[in-house]
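Dear colleagues,

As part of the handover before I leave the project, I'm documenting each prediction I ran so the next person doesn't have to rerun anything. This entry is a single chain, and its sequence is reproduced below.
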Amino acid sequence: MKKKNTLDEFFEDNNSKTINAEEMFHKNMKTYGLDVLEDRALADFRDGLKPAQRRLIWTAKDLKATWDNKTVKSARITGDCMGKYHPHGSAYGSLVTLATSEYPLIYGQGNWGSLTDGPAADRYTEAKISEVGMKMLECMDVADYIPNYTGEFKEPVVLTTRLPNFFINECAGIAVGLSCNIPSHNLKEIVDAMKVVIKKGQATKIKDIMKVMKGPDHKYGGKIISTPAEVEAVYKNGEGSIKYECDYTLVREKKNMLLTVTGYCPGFSPNTFINKMISMIDDGVVIYVNDSSTKTDPCKLEVLIKNEEDFEKKIHKHLIKSESYRFYAIERQKSKAIEKDVDTKILIPNMLDLMNMWVDWRKGVETKMCEVEKKLEEEKKQKCDWRLLASQNIKVIVKALEEKDPIKYIAENMPGLKGKSFAMEAAKYIGDQRVISLQKIDQDKIKTDIKDHEKNIKALEYDIAHIDDVVIRELDKLKPYYRDRKLKV
């Protein structure tokens, strides 16, 4: 008997097996939602980047579009990014975000838009990694890499940045059943807060970081009108709302009042505000609206209002915004099971959790960097030792040239090598050197080089034992990128 097609049943294939449609949609929607969360919507707390943004910076580096080089066409960067790493549609919007964020990681030439206008198309603009953006690419020698979607190229799982990008540039994302919004902060305040976390460790409280980090920052100004306790609650709970107000002046002009908006708080849209003011002209509340903003002075709106009472009752509320925040993030790790895959963990932390996690991660990265540099210094010292040894025993090398197996002869007859585990490796290295170059070695100079390498090795061993100091030292190197707080408290 032929089965009926109903809303409750769905034929999977040509077999008679059926599955419940509701269960199928729930399962597929969950899979899709998690995929969006993990691979598009949320930033990794370590580098503060979504996959598209990370791949754009990596592509710019591939193209040598770095701070010390020339800009390249944005279309070239986005095209290469999509072709090599990100087959999910246009990535130009993500590039614009990187170029116009609180602390831009991309330096752009051309029309990258404004608060009231969109950017020019990618074929008209040029870009390269900004000076502060180059901090994102430090320590990449110890980063984890996976194959791209075609298997032809390698891409980093996360950028081993020394810049606390997750905290200084706003992270916002919307996915299935979940939205994330983490405000931008002042770099100096974040660095000071990180130092508190490093020095106090697990004993750190939200109140401790609030002493140096007063709240979100915003390059277009405004002020926080929520109380410090309300801001602290948002950081402590990992979610909540903060109220802001635009900067403005209100002066009498004959019988009317002139409102000049000079700073745009978070969440404020100049276009929306202008349209609202225009709609009040017919009501007799507003006489005229003028957008006087320029590239050098991006925040300047003038509104001539009939009287002060109208401002208080009908206009002032449009200068106040309440922004909702939810602190979600992800942590991407190279999969141990599948080489080309990434395991992603969704995190629901508060501000202190995020800072502790970032500091712990930085300690791990700096430790790896010190170990890599120490190994390189040890290898250089070892080669200097072998060259010095060879220069002191030229006769053994000359005699070895007459032997059937010169390398074996050197390993067995060179003073200081016989019976050592590295004898064959050292003998091969010495055997590869030209005798005449060994004869010309300045033994005093090479002894000085050996002492320098020993000094560097001891310094790196000290750093590994005092890794907290290393993290603080690297954070202090961010001072050239500090700026004054723009969002008043």
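The first strand starts at residue 9 and ends at 11. Residues 351-392 form the longest helix (42 residues).

All the best with the project,
I.
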